[in-house]
């Protein structure tokens, strides 16, 4: 039994931040019902290629994007634009502990599915809204997009090659970090609200914003600005205060070298055949190496280019110099540590046969995370949920289907 096996979650969210949150809750054992639009479903179902393949190697209707954020959930299709559909969702909310949604501010109020409406049928309900800019402020009604928030929240101002580097520009992250972090904060806030409800019987409303989250996750960068009033700049893959602490190209790929002290620097240049650099007066101490990085780094680049990525990893690990490869995704899943940790899973799926998934990183000794359900096909569990939760008979469900309500 998972830690949250006693918790029921009604998931009205779509795309990434909300589904990431509810997948975390589902992985911990919560019974998550994903409400989708009949005939269309979550937008990410159509975000491909790539799509999962069946046993014959043909594409299924299951996009890789949807797959990564919707395991351990059950899917029900309901048209919430119609009064009958709204009533079904209200009944499901009354049987739930948590509701998660990421509609525009005020949009669900016209359907009677906002917090004020639903807490009338479930007074101790925990209701989490995820938006781009939150429920208050002059930007509240703007739509929120991760890419834009990465820019507005300062992340892109410090990500990318140094402004003096030819052709440099601000860069976004390779994944939607504002969405993903917001989903993580949302799941943490929901767990706190569950504990509060269990102690006091009180539900509550949770207001999560992508922009707030993006600024919060700037961590030491934001703090440095507030303390110094200086504006942090892009510096690429190098550290502003430690040299060498950056990426280097090898003869067949890239590695990261993190020589954080004088001893590690000496070991680095010694195994690279340039031991004399450790005794150069310009590079004896880290502050000197920072000061003279423009002359030192080209020498190190020339040295590191002479060996392969694998050769350097072996040499530096033996010498006690912190290092690591920059792996592509194939190399990630071929890595012995990744394989030992069971990061790649394969679960049965109705159309894809065995569907590959990335495991949750949460390892609990007494209530371990397990994949109980593959990412659902659209509306896969509609009949099951209506019968189980709302006690509707097959004739009533058939009428709802014929009317296009489910």
TrEMBL record:
Keywords carried by this UniProt record? Transferase
Q: Per its UniProt record, what Pfam families does this chain match?
A: CoA_transf_3 (PF02515)
Can you name one GO molecular function term for this protein?
CoA-transferase activity
| Entries under Gene3D superfamilies matching the protein | Crotonobetainyl-coa:carnitine coa-transferase, domain 1, formyl-coa transferase, domain 3
The superkingdom listed in its UniProt entry is: Bacteria
Xref: PANTHER family: SUCCINATE--HYDROXYMETHYLGLUTARATE COA-TRANSFERASE
This chain belongs to the protein called: Formyl-CoA transferase
Organism source for this protein? Polynucleobacter meluiroseus
